[in-house]
Structure formats: C-alpha cells, structure tokens
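hey can u run this one w/ calcium ion bound, need the structure tokens asap thx
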Amino acid sequence: MSDQPSILVVEDNPTTQRILSVALASEGYRPLLSAGVAQAQMIARDKKPDLYLIDLGLPDGDGIMLIHSLRKWTAKPIIVLTAESNEADKVAALDAGADDYLTKPFGIEELKARIRVARRRLAGPRYNKQPPLVWIGEIAIDLANRTVTRAGKEIRLTPIEFRLLSVLCEHPGKLIAHDVLLEAVWGPSFQGETHYLHIYINRLRTKFKVDASTKEQHIETIPLLGYRLLATEVRPAEDGGG
Ligand code: CA
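ok here u go:
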C-alpha cells in the first residue's frame, strides 16, 4: 500500500479537507492532511509527498510563502486552491513556483484531471536521443545535463521554466505557437491559457538578462501567435558524432 502516491492537502476548512481526502483516496492516492503552514512544513519534510494541494488562505500564514519555502528543496507538483478568482493571487502563486491552480468551487473530476496532468508532466524528458547544445549569445542551454549558464555562471531555473525553455529549444529560431507550448509544458487541457506563457516567458527573460536595463533579446514575442527562441548557435550533442 505504501507505493500509493501521497498528496499533501493543506486546507483549513474541515469540510473541504474531508471532501478532498475522500476523493483522493478513491483515486488511489494516499492523502496527508494539514490545516496550516507550520504543520504542512513538518509533514512535507517528514513524508516527502508526491504532490501538494495548497489553499492560499491559511490561519497561520500565507500559502504563497509556503510554496516559496517548498520550492527551495522539492520539485514535486504544487496545485493551488484559490477561494476567489483573484488574478493577482494566481500570478503570485505561479511566480512562487506553483504548477497550476484551481478556483473554488471546482469539480472533483477537474481536480483529478489536473493532478494527472501535473504528475505526467514530471515523467521525464521528451528527447529519445541526446539533445543538442543551444546557445543564445553567451547563454548556453545544455538540455542533456539540464543546465543553463551565462558565460559559465549557472542560471537557476525552476522545473517548469526549464521545460518551457526545452520546448523552445526543440525548434530554435522557429515560431512555436501558444497552444503547442501550452500543451507540451502544461498538458492538453491548458489550450488557450496564454497567461501562463506570459508569466513564464517573462520569468525566463528576467533570468537571462544581465541587468534590467539591458536591451538584448533572447525570446521573441510573435504577437497573437507564439514565441521564438533567438538561438545564435546549435551544436549537435557530443556523443555519436565521432
Ligand atoms: Ca482557507
């Protein structure tokens, strides 16, 4: 039984917590329950859950801060539950490192689908052969070793940022449509959700810049259509080439 994936539910409303717990158990997940930030931190460290469902409004702290602290040591999927359709909250949660959000009230079937998508996304790289090294100016993207460096200094990316970048790298210099990126990074149910792309492309751009005033471009916006990685050089992977 212990090979069931565990899901930490951080939710202070007892009714919602109970409903989620029953629904997750019926799907074959092992629910772990917490009503606040402090308890969630303890359970997370102790049990290393496979996925997190986090309500943003908690009695002893802020769900956003919890996400920030979890993201310092775990890459497991985090889905946020927001009480109202507050756009600023969602953006802050995604910025903190959440993978997805659900606005209450949501259907249990929708929740289950989002969990499946989040878990599938973690399932590994899309490449079946050694991926190339991609350069944008002095930024080197090493997909095989999952590292991004600028002039030899590492640029740290979150798992989703890296995945988005690696999809752009599959066709360097070519336009990649919004829906293609959304499906590859977040899954088929995310078509049309272009605000995810705006947030994550901007995060990549910010991390790529030497400082805020610099004019250099790394990812081009093609209005209404998609994005294009402004690769300056693509080298085949070292092995197999002789
Ligand atoms: Ca709450």
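The first strand starts at residue 6 and ends at 10. anyway lmk if its weird
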